[in-house]
Amino acid sequence: MRASQDQSIRYAGTRRGGRRRVLAAGALVAVLALTGACTTTGGGSGNGTGGAPGAPGAPAENPPKASAVITEPQADAKDVPASTAIVFDTEQATETTVELADSSGTAVEGALAADGASWLPTGALEYGETYTATVTATGDDGRPATVTSTFTTMAKPGKQVRISSFLGDDQVVGVGMPLIVTFGRGIPEDRRAEVQRRMTVTSEPAQEGIWRWVSPTEVRYRPKEFWQSGTKISYRVQAGGLPLGGGWYGRNDLTVDVEVGRDLRMTVDNKAKRMTVTRDGEVVKTIPVSLGKKSTPSSSGTMVVMEKLRKTVFDTYDELGPEDGYRTKIDYAQRLTYGGEFIHAAPWSEGQQGRTNVSHGCVNVSMANGAWLFSNTRVGDPITVKGTERKLQVGNGWTEWAMSWEEYVKGSALPYEPAADTTEG
Length: 425
Hints:
Elements: E1 22-24, E2 30-33, E3 67-72, E4 86-91, E5 95-102, E6 110-112, E7 118-121, E8 130-138, E9 144-152, E10 160-161, E11 163-165, E12 172-173, E13 179-183, H1 189-197, E14 199-204, E15 209-215, E16 218-223, E17 232-237, E18 243-245, E19 248-250, E20 254-260, E21 264-269, E22 274-279, E23 282-288, E24 299-304, E25 307-315, H2 317-324, E26 327-335, E27 342-345, E28 363-365, H3 367-376, E29 382-386, E30 390-391, H4 405-408
Parallel strand pairs: 10-19, 12-20, 21-29, 24-30, 27-28
Antiparallel strand pairs: 1-2, 2-5, 3-4, 4-7, 5-8, 6-7, 8-9, 11-13, 13-16, 14-17, 15-16, 17-20, 18-19, 21-22, 22-23, 24-29, 25-26, 26-27
């Protein structure tokens, strides 16, 4: 999975790239294979380092070469957040295992982080429960050094923030679909990086991407290029019990699995007054359109279908007033912006479609073409409008594709690191 981009991966099993590999015993013990250059050193939490068996309090005559220390949570810590990771240092270790068990001895599932220096439970821990973490480091002498830390999680907090996803499991979306996660309360800027570290995305095939905060309550993820057709996406937010500032904590974890459908794209040329529809790179239809007239122009830029309404009513009286406002029944409406730009059937303008712009900013098509589009599009399908008098405003809808990649990554709470170039020179 990716936290901020491809190279930040938490897999319940393996770190991609092959530098470190997690093995599992009953899927409950994570093992990290390290080279000497990948070992870490550092201070301790008072737990000490593990050694060979010997008399209590007496140093071993031939201690193991490897050592380990748990730095978080410290031994006997109380009121530990339920989102805690097990953070540790090892020295001269070629293999490290991490185990976590509750007070009844039941093992907790989890996985090593990409940096190999921490282990994160698969889900939030229980509130008010006592756990014991065990880290065992083994050196090239084959002798293990073991260290433990017993700690107690905090009581269930009274102030919790709900975390939700726009998409639900098993949805099939268009190639321009951003992943959207919302929070029931604004996340302070100084907490967003930690939240983003707990947000991972896995795609098959793998594609570089990043999260961008569009507001204190909403963060979105897009790949560097449009999703590849057929991509399987799984994204996870491990924020249950995570401190979110001001005494607030994440209420829940979140996991969503979706799939990208065929690659359908729409391109509208204002000069030609035509929409060209391609599927998997092949032109499948050309449609006459009427765009917004000069006083209410359509936006130029790349948008995506946000929602589809077979029948709806456009009511602009509150916005435009009694003189200019209107209330009209609409068929085959597909929203493109928050401001009210749609693709929709407009039988009243069929005579102008392909010739003149007469709409209030929407992409007008005939009833027959509106029905065809409606039956062939999905939420997340991109549409690019070119050559109008107004540029698409970033933030007026799902405008992730209205920005260059260089501009988009600036919205991440974590520094952007380009994916490694794996091509051979």
